[in-house]
């Protein structure tokens, strides 16, 4: 005798609106984490700029400054790793947040332009 119980087969939908993952602060925290081990006046200026950001597009324009800061104090491969992690979180935020559209960020790979 086989029968279906009402709770089997039902997936619980993830409430993205209830998670911190879809907040802009989620990406700003990644900026802070990426430069947490750096003591430089440029870091202070970058943190002040982060406080003024209101959209993912604003954060996008600070990526190059973050990359320059990290590569100045570490090697470029570490800077690429940290910025890649930031890019991943930024792309996730834009793709899943109802208030931001994917057109706000450049299309294609989110690689740094040299």
Explain this structure:
Helix 1 (24-34) runs antiparallel to helix 4. It contains 4 helices and no strands. The protein is 54% helix and 0% strand. It is mainly α. It has helices at 24-34, 41-52, 56-73, 76-96.
User: In whole angstroms, how far apart are the ends?
Assistant: 66 Å
Binned strand content:
under 5%
Distinct helical segment count: 4
Oligomer class: single chain
The level of helicity is: 40-55%
Content-based structural category? mainly alpha
The chain-level mean pLDDT equals 78
What are the secondary-structure elements, in order, as H or E?
HHHH
Rounded to an integer, what's the Rg over CA atoms?
18 Å
Q: What is the general shape?
A: globular
Main sheet characteristics: none
Number of E strands = 0
| Uncertain regions spanning at least 5 consecutive residues | 13-18, 108-114
Task: Summarize the model shown.
The chain is mainly α and 114 residues long.
List the helices and strands and how they pair.
Blueprint: H1 24-34, H2 41-52, H3 56-73, H4 76-96
Helix pairs in contact: 1-3, 1-4, 2-3, 3-4
């Amino acid at each position: 005798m086989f029968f279906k119980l009402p709770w089997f087969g039902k997936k619980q939908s993830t409430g993205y609106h209830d998670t911190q993952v879809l907040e802009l602060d989620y990406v700003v925290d990644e900026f802070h984490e990426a430069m947490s081990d750096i003591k430089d006046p440029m870091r202070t200026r970058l943190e002040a700029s982060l406080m003024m950001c209101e959209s993912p597009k604003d954060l996008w324009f600070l990526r190059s400054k973050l990359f320059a800061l990290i590569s100045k104090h570490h090697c470029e491969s570490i800077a690429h790793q940290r910025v890649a992690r930031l890019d991943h979180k930024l792309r996730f935020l834009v793709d899943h947040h109802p208030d931001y559209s994917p057109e706000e960020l450049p299309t294609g790979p989110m690689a740094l332009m040299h």
